[in-house]
Amino acid sequence: MKSLHKAIAVLDCFSRAEPSLSLGTIADRLGLPKPTAHRLLAALREAGLVVQDGNRDRYRLGLRLVALGSVALSDLALFHVARPYAERLANQSGEAAHLCAFDGSNVVSIDRREMQPARNEQVTIEREPPHCTGTGKAILAFLPAAVVERVIAGGLERFTANTLTDPDALRAELAVVRERGYALDLEERQYGIRCVGAPIRDPGGAVVGSISATGPADRFPEGRIATLAELVTATARAISEALAARPAG
């Protein structure tokens, strides 16, 4: 079981920002001896979960993960129910609409809708830390305190000068999110990008995901945020109601 956890940790090292990593980088990031990291990568490569770049000492995720991700999405009620609402949000707001879920540690983007259909991505699986995104904070604010503390214990990485890296500041921000019903990302994950996110609930009332309107900061002035927040929260409520009305099974 420990080896399985280590193998998953290896896969978690990769991201869109770093799709290709060296053996040394992976070993250093996980605090593992190089021989141990090499054995884990060899096992993952044999399973088709990672591939090695020719004879180079660099690795990237394998296409088998794409197939597995597609299977997971095909059985995800949130993905199927929310897609038309996300598309409508993009058209109404003029901004990109992101549909997200939470995997226990990170917020996972499972779909993205834009006004230009050619730019829509059919499978958009990307993991980001929840403390610095509107979608992540919209979910995190309504999860048990133990989950929030686990995220804090994992480290609040700084991405911009606006990122909340102080635990007390994050806790206070999540309290604000719970009170007003939506979360903001004011250039906390990336300079020049702002986001308004709201939680999506399952039929039992538990928060299972979030949706956001995301775009350039100059299109998200303070005077427009309230309007966008109303639109995003209305969309999140509509998705929640559609999930509740979905036949069981």
TrEMBL record:
InterPro entries: ArsR-like_HTH, GAF-like_dom_sf, HTH_MetabolicPath_Reg, Tscrpt_reg_IclR_C, Tscrpt_reg_IclR_N, WH-like_DNA-bd_sf, WH_DNA-bd_sf. GO terms for biological process: negative regulation of DNA-templated transcription. It holds the Pfam family HTH_IclR. One of its GO terms (molecular function) is DNA binding. The keyword Disulfide bond does not apply. Keywords: DNA-binding, Transcription, Transcription regulation. Residues 64-245 form the IclR-ED domain. Transmembrane segments: none annotated. Residues 1-63 form the HTH iclR-type domain. It comes from the Bacteria. This is IclR family transcriptional regulator. The lineage of its organism: Bacteria, Pseudomonadati, Pseudomonadota, Alphaproteobacteria, Rhodospirillales.
